[in-house]
Input
Amino acid sequence: MNLANLSSPCLSGSSRPREYCGIFGIYGHPEAARLTYFGLYALQHRGQESCGIVTGDGYQVRQHKGLGLVHDVFNQPALDNLTGHLAIGHVRYSTTGSTILRNAQPFVVHHGGETLAIGHNGNLVNAQEIRHRLEEEGSIFQSTMDTEVIVHLMARHFRKGLVEALTEALTGVRGAYSLVLATKDKVIGVRDPHGFRPLCLGRLNGSLVLASETCALDLVQAEYLRDIEPGEIVVLDENGLTSYKNLPPVPNKFCIFEFIYFARPDSLIFGHNVYQIRKRLGVQLAKEHPVAADLAMPFPDSGNYAGLGYAEGLGVPFEMGVIRNHYVGRTFIQPSQSMRDFSVRVKLNPVREILKGKRVVVVEDSIIRGTTSRTRVKTLREAGANEVSMVVSCPPTRFPCYYGIDFSSKGELIAAHKTVEEIRDYLGLDYLGYMSLDGMVAATQMDSQGFCLACFNGEYAVELVGDFSKTCFESCLAR
Ligand code: SF4
Output
């Protein structure tokens, strides 16, 4: 999370929710950097703005970071320079204005003869408050990232040892964090006590691997061992793995949005396969909203797997009524005014022969701002669809997320200001149905008490602190 954004409007310009980061770590492999590079490749969906790898060889720490995708930032010479038997890596998504190199991670600091690197997935809700206090006491910050406060807090306790310093720092911060840290001879993995964000552990022959999602373990051919537990600190070094549970236990609050939208469908998240859960969400959606339709379709790729489940549950054909152009970059030259809605049309093109004269039900995973969905619905009608309905595999997203997802203000959430009927009207739909909260949780077949559902029900497990709620929340609401 970029602290600079807390005093500015929070829109990222995207109509889709975005994850903030993905992390990877490996200890005990002569090609640690190369495997981390592949691990980051698998995690690219969790962040596309910047990335970095830090390695250690027992004597020295090396780093390479840059703005852009993994294949843009790293080349053969860069990887050849990253020698060492341990590495951590990070892919980052940031909101507008914060895409600067000094905010790329892993964040590296030198203190008392030791070099420490840290990569963070999540968001700290009291970082602003801690930063103000530390700055008043003389600390000089190098970035605008919340992650940096962890390092400053650790620095005050380094003489006690690495794990003790980390424990002291984490006792002071609140919010969501899965972390990988590296020194010249250790890799450390941490999950916050609520376990908001995922972090798993794998083994590749004699090496140990940490990753946000198991798809990264698969790519480097590591075997999934288990998840890092909420509140657990694991140290990977010449002694193997040592686990510490120094942080006070609190109830689990796994982010259910990882299942609905963020994580890759081939991953295990919180120990459960994302594809299967998305498909069950679709089956449940068919029970709750059995729309009379000729076909069910997604707007690819969101809604693909819930769409399969919905079509199966309803007994209607599943069709790809629009085709996605996979070669559209994040930025492209905008055409003239006469080509309205170009940015939506360039990504998805309707298949008229499939849609013409049909009653179509679109299966979506979520509706955040609604602007993109509105244009897409219009293109379906223009392509000849007789009726266009939409079913959504989660309840209305009415509340901001402060735990590492980019809809951090109520102002950007359509469901915070409109009823379902008003949203249906705005999107130009014949019917709109959202999944119930109970139905969504039941479809996961996991402990119903173990989820964060704050963006749906407003029940925040970790309360907001000070400036975060005031600056971000109010500036967005005031727009
Ligand atoms: Fe996930 Fe929503 Fe909770 Fe944020 S508020 S952590 S998106 S469930």
In short: The chain has 17 helices and 23 strands. Residues 196, 255-257, 401, 403, 405, 452-455 surround iron/sulfur cluster (CB under 6 Å). Residues 136 and 455 are 34 Å apart (CA to CA).
